[in-house]
Amino acid sequence: MPRLSNSLLRRAYHIDPLLPLLLRPCRDLPSARNELRWLREHVSSTPNPNRPHGSNPTPNHLRQLCLERARGKPLQYILGTQPFGALDILCRRGVLIPRPETEAYTALLAAALTRATPPSNLRILDLCTGTGCIALLLHALLAPHIPHLSIRGIDVSPAAVTLARRNLAWNTRHGYLRATAARQVRFAYGDVLTETPPVDGEWDVLVANPPYISPAGFDADTERSVRNYEPKLALVPPPPPPLGGVRERFGDGGLDGAGDTFYVPLDRLARKGGAKIMVVEVVGSEQAVRVVRGIYGVGGGYWDGCEVWHDGWDGRRADENSADGKDGGGGWGVRHLGAGHGRAVVCWRGQGREWLHGME
Length: 360
Prior knowledge:
two-stranded antiparallel ribbon, globular, 360 residues, 15 helices, alpha/beta, 41% helix
């Protein structure tokens, strides 16, 4: 990473003495000014018995937060929240921070499910739920159109399950979610890798943002703030078992064989629950192709179709806005939609095709 120029640091200091601290993580002046404004607003809104209501933030408190940010602490952990669609997601250390790329494909999924004639009943299983952001945003977007929703979020981390429940209560209390969310959304502990999460019956849609970064990729490709502050458990899966079906269906699984561990158990759970749609997040087009191969190619026989949603895709299926027909799925004619990084592998069967594609 290039060093910040002295002229930029001097310019920032003349605007505000705290800005040079924020330039370290932000790298440009507009972003640093935005973060300083948000931190000031945060300090101003934080109750302090020693500071009169409406007075300026305590300089020492604000400087301390800027120092934490300069050391690489994610802004979301400092402010305590992250916008996700129209929701306000509580963020706490030990639980992965929601990403805008996850928000984008979640909104695309909801838009697809409501574009034509949405089903009157829909059961959604959100595995590796983390903060609960996917489950909650799906409820916020689907509830106005689908009266009978049942959404279950599962995570192996007790801290994540606790935070997801807090997010359900927080967003319902503040009016970001309909009151029906309190009875239609549930969060529980479960281990996807044992394939025995506490979910019974059938599910129409399975969605998951699993750990998908290999240990080597975690060390080489992630930002310092991610390595130092966010939970590795939510980012890096354990190595696949020798006879667990992962290497047989996915090949080497990435840099060191660990990146694809979750996708076979997720596929099995989708089939076990009779899912009509499965949406799983991936990191980049190479992993997307491996997942397509393992789920739709080598592991075929259940899914009728599969496609890859890339970052930047806006949901339109016109040829000029997609890579329709591009064979990036290992010879299975899988469509790649959008031109950015591969972000989600989407599979469907039976009625799921109608829900996703309408009369296309």
